[in-house]
UniProtKB/TrEMBL annotation:
Keyword tags: Hydrolase
MF terms (GO), sorted A to Z: bis(5'-nucleosyl)-tetraphosphatase (asymmetrical) activity
PANTHER family per record: BIS(5'-NUCLEOSYL)-TETRAPHOSPHATASE [ASYMMETRICAL], DIADENOSINE 5,5-P1,P4-TETRAPHOSPHATE PYROPHOSPHOHYDROLASE MUTT
Protein name: NUDIX domain-containing protein
Amino acid sequence: MSRKHRIIAAGGVILRERSQGLQVLLIHRDRYDDWSLPKGKGEADELLPETALREIDEETGVEAVLDLRLPSVRYETPKGPKISHYWRARVRRQRNRRPDQEVQAVTWFPVEEAIAKATYPAEQELIAQAVRSADTHALLIVRHAKAMQRKHWSGDDQRRRLSGRGRRQAKRLVDLLAAFGIEQLISSSSERCVQTLQPYAKATGLTIRTVDALTEEAGSRNPKAVRKYMAKLLAGLDRPTAVCGHRPVLPEMYAGLGLDAAPMVVAEVRGLHVADGKVLATETFKPTA
């Protein structure tokens, strides 16, 4: 007997603040007769945060920004085992959504009422955890996208550029950085790192701050400066931020953040959720290009 394929979905606990207090958004589906959190299955080459945002938008009309990663929920369905991944999310904007065959109602509830209204105990706990967790900013550590091979580059290595594959990877990073509402871009001053963040900078109008200490050359000579820079960034983090670095320098970057280094492939992103200068949770996003 063949083993059933695992179904993977993503969604979020969407919160908004009102004068009467915090509210949670739930959807009602007649075919299941339930009140639940918005979620759905991924599409080809989508990263999980992208799936979560698309499904939130499709099912609620909310354009959201993701925050803290929440626990995943595993359960059995007639089509096989399913795992749903969740983030806490805030509203960027909301449009009116007409009822359709999938979702018949989209309603904001006060927190306690939302917990009581939610049909599934696992989602009740997700709402409670999202509400009691500290507010965080995302700090995304990016290894630069695929660069031209050194043997094919005769100039200054700091000017070595991305390959065609690397440029495609950089473009794919735009949606991931947008998912976490990145407001600050920091990069090694080497061209391949700057180019990795340029598509997002162009899409948002942000300026990329370049840091010489994060280059391969400077970072190898003075790893203490790398650790000091990252520790200072963590302690004062006041907005969602992405930092692009190089494979040889990444261990020192992580050391400055008080984290163990982990191998990263080109264009991989490690997401850190930070509150009051401390990393509360981490997650990893592998490139699809």
